[in-house]
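CHAIN AND CONFORMATION:

***
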Amino acid sequence: MISSSKNTPIRKIFLLSSLVSITLLHSQTVSDIKFEGLNHISVENAKEIIKIRKGDEINPEAIDRSIKKLYAQQYFKDIWVEQNKGILTYHLKEKPIIAKVELSGLAKEKNEETLQSAGIKKGDIYDETKIKTVKKNIENNLQSKGYFDSVVEIENKELNEGSLQTKIVVNKGENIFIEKINFYGLKNFKYSDFKHLLANKKRQAVGWFFGRDDGILKADQLKADAMRIKDFYLKNGYLDAVVEEPVLKTNFDNYTATLSYKITEGSQYKVGSVTVDIDEKIANPKELKEEFKLKTGQVFNVENLRKDMRKIRDATSNKGYAFSTIIPDVKQNKTNHTADIKYIVKTNEKVFVNNVVISGNSRTIDRVIRRELYLSEGDAFNQKDLIDSTNALKRTGYFNDVQIIPKQIAKDKMDLLVNIDEASTGSIMGGISYGSYDKFGVNAGISDRNFLGSGIEVGLDIDTSEKTTRGSLHFYNPRVFDSLYSLGGNIFKKDFDYYDYDEKSLGGSLKLGRKIGRNLQASLTYLYEDVELTNVSESLQDGIYYREGRTVKSSFLPSITYDNTDDYYLPRSGINITAGIEYAGIGGDAKFLRKSLSFKYYYGLDDLIDYDLIFRLKGRVSTVNDNGYLPLNEKLYLGGMGTVRGFRQGTLSPKNEEGKLVGAEKMAAGSIEVSLPLIESVQMRILTFYDYGMTGDNKFSEIHRQSVGAGIEWAKSPLGVPLQLFYSYALDDKEDDRTSKIEFNLGRRF
């Protein structure tokens, strides 16, 4: 162990000063000041600290004070001064530097977090007082997590002169288990009613098993648990409830504890009158009350009170009064146990945006972010504009998270701090596949949704096997020259050898779009495809849908999309609806009209149940009409991802006499999904679903199937694109249906 004399007794300093004073003559003056052993601070700073100048009279008391001031910098373990012919020489021995920090005794993944919270890092000066604080911080942190009697030891190894390797050895103490919890005063509730709110719970049998309560004491949460119980009573109308701080009785012989709460419940209150004192020019009190959660006659609930206050705040913020003061005046009637609620609203001054400060975008260009903001410098603040701006940025898919924080800088001014966490928008994929028909295959792709931070999407995909060759190149600019117009297109080439025919195609598309308002997008796409069919089987040659030889499709595809979802990868609220048609017959051979409608509805239940459960409802309807020539590959096929999982992609459709799939002219499918968090830190979730679909030529219900299943979805997978893996089970498959248990998808929005 290397000891430090940081705590050198004051008398030693005085002794040194006294020794110096014996050799000094009061009549002498300082001719020069020198420092030996000075590394951490500059000579200029040291001279400023000692406050002694050339020409000053040599004064033992002044030198004594200067030594104390240098010690106060906490860089030195020893200091002495020599005087020779007016030259003061300060000799300094500095404390060593911590060149390396190691931590043992805890899980490796927690080391960095533990050291940071303890307050020690590489490059720090080794200081005994600080080391004691570090040890205490680690011990307290362990105790807050339920480990008592932990011991933290420090081992130092000198690497070279002035530098140390500091090893912190942690011997975790024992967990204390809560064997019993007493609640004195409970009348209307029992432990199980609010157990789910508590951090400290009674140990259950087999408490180590998943889903059981282990009973480990979390000492730092005891006061918070009392507040949680109090909040539970306020949510159930018990305004007079008193929850005293818990009393913990610990037996250190067997490391068990008994926890006791004393609770006075009082009476339950219902809501009496509800009034809003607000300037009617800003908001109509009657209209506000209609949206309130708390209404006359209902049981009082403090959480609904908070929600109603947020509604008032939103209403005032939407009129530019961002910093309104809302005071809930709750008057209790002890006789009839009602609570009259009066919201007193002080709107203060109207607030304007002074500056918009963007941070965190090391890659994305500022203007790409600013073009999605509905608030800019000089605008009156509006809460809806702030929410819409946040959602618009999240919908781009360029960011993991977006936070826009209003910062008041004056009574009538604010800055908007736009904090961006950029997502990895680029991906490189490659793989090898094998199929009983395709044999060995190789696929590769490279894409970026935010190329060079410009907001432009580009991508290249290649897929080849013994029977298949496919390649495509695409681009999409959602805001051409930062305008409301978008432009995109692709070029593709396919070469398929199917069971019943061979197909070669070459084509491309060009898409022009425009934003209409905040959530509406209209577009028009032109698609050209040249298809050549050869080796068509006899069973298909007689059909009207397959022509051997070359066929050209030339079509227009107008569409309109409404999207007010709050995120690109993992929406928790909003709706996405797309309606479009494809009119083929602008020249070429194919002549048909396809109509389609798709919708996705997202609803997160976090605000209702305090759990990140997401409900999704999805559906799509398509019809296609033959206007002269409807190729078989343009007809509608049910099954697989996007329609009915559990059945192979596109294998549900009418068949000809030989049992070959010939497609349908009508199709509809819908899904109900529930998504739950699995590993929140990486946004991995569990999904359960129910799918239903139907298809046919004359009516939708000629063929109908349904399935259920579960799977994993990963919004930010290591591949750089969303990943979904499902296990599906067909509920009503027929004898000749082609089912599929395991399905996965890359790149599809949830």
Notes: The domain at 352-422 is CATH 3.10.20.310 (Ubiquitin-like (UB roll)). The two ends are 58 Å apart (CA to CA). Residues 399 and 423 are 4 Å apart (CA to CA). Confidence is low (pLDDT under 50) at residues 1-25.
